[in-house]
Request: fold
Amino acid sequence: MGEVWFGYDKRLDRPVAVKFIRIDRLPDGKPDKELTQRFVRESRITARLEHPGVPAVYDCGSRGENLYLVMQHIDGCSLSDLLDEIREAGEIPVEWAAAVAAQVCSVLSAAHARSLVHRDLKPGNIMLCPDGTVKVLDFGVAAALSSSETKLTRTGVVLGTPDYMAPEQAAADIVGPKTDLYSLGVVLDEMLAKNNQFKGDTPLASMRNHTDRSPQSLRARRDGVPEELEQLVLRLLAKNPDDRPASADEVYAELLTFCEELPPFPGYVDLTTPYPLRMYATVVGRVGPPSRAQAKQRNEPVRPLTPAVPIDVHEIAMTRKRAEALKAESRFGQAAEVLAGLMETVVGALGSRHPDVIEIRIELADVLFLGGDYRRAAPAFAELASDLAESGGPADDLVLRCRLMEANCHAVVGETSLALAQLGQLLDDEKSYGVDEDRVLELRRQIGLLELGSGNRFQARRTLGDLLPDLERRYGPRHPNLRKVRDVLHGIGDES
Reply:
């Protein structure tokens, strides 16, 4: 996607890495300003992911036609380089393959808890450092580029990497936490067997292999792999996301059993130097979860409602204006903090269903969504839909919008079954309420793509196939949405 340059921070006197991302201009020859804004937004979201396995982000922006990230400089070997060298002679010890994957799971656990999905996990984005730690690179880059019509300059490159792309991502660009787990399964399988079994001659062939080809036996391709580890890899490589492990935490716990004693790994991990980070990690590793008694003691009682106090209408208006300015600068996390603080004041004074409070609650839910905090946004939209239905009725446009946004939150974090159930109910309700046909058609398209992403290709083919003539009747044979649905149906094929 670009180049990484070594740089030096003259102000703080430290080495840095600068990643430039090359993009084409739009068809009219103008730069894609929307892409730049989205890139800055994703970089800010990623910068809040504080984890020792993620390089710190120091800055981001654009220079000429390039976007750039300034990051912590990491001394280590990319997994792609390691694999290239290992293929010539030797192999990665089983224990170290499990250890690398377990550390990646630790990073994914932290990211998924914040509703961040990597979308492009591959050996080139994983680094093994001499102290034995693992770094996961490029969080947020694929997300920033995913919804842009701008294509990367290198011919044949698609968003995400076809050789490591989960079936739902390849078929319908549906991503969630389990998308990352699938990609991790491909990487782990390759570390152990020294080859990517899904790699095809072309990007399209690789994507087809992920959607159609059953994974090969790992133990038939390498001796000494424990049967339990093979079974874990096969579960990670399940075509249907629902058949994969529930979370990165679950995968981490299973991987730990295979890397309790790590053998020497000369040339890649230095066992002779006493790295302070290992001292730190050894102590932290002995910290266990609190006992039930301690956990019970830590449970705080529900705080009573704040008593009504006089409010400053001018101050409320200024606070909302400040949040709006932060939102305009894509500083969504800070805008959410400002609005959440305001909520504590206005709810206590006016109640949660006061019209002015409802407006602030909507602003907060929207900012949480834009900032990628989907796990907080989902209940915020759900509560809004419930409260608004009581005052304006279930057919109110704002109620239907909040229900759609809640379902979108669940879809983004990989809760596909729940999202499909909510979207299906919303579709039935919108039809009965007689809402605008354009909205109904778009909702049907969204459901079909989500069904495809969940692995239910038969139902997706049925949903999108039924949608096709209705789209043509509504928009004509040349409409972009019609072409997109045709392309998806062509990709699904005519399986029975």
Remarks:
- The beta strands are 2-9, 14-22, 57-63, 66-72, 77-78, 126-128, 134-136.
